Amino acid sequence: MRSIDDAKKAYLEELARRQQDGHISTSYQLTGLEIANILEDWKHKSLYIKIAKEHGESKMLQLAKSVAENKNISNKGAYFMKILKNTSY
Question: Which of 12, 57, 59, 64 has CB atoms 3.0–4.6 Å from 31's, for a disulfide?
């Protein structure tokens, strides 16, 4: 019979292993991460995943690329969100 300490240690090791196993299971998750990379805004990657899911992956990826191409924009993530808010995607 395992002791409580052994069970606790095994559980914590399993959690650590799962955390390192991060994987992408849907295409919109990958697209959201690509958008975060293009916009250089990893802090809001979960938001971009949600946007890719709700508004269409290819349109959002295209919008992010057009924002990133403009060299005069200092905060690409904020500009992306402003365009998204002001247009009907």
Answer: 57
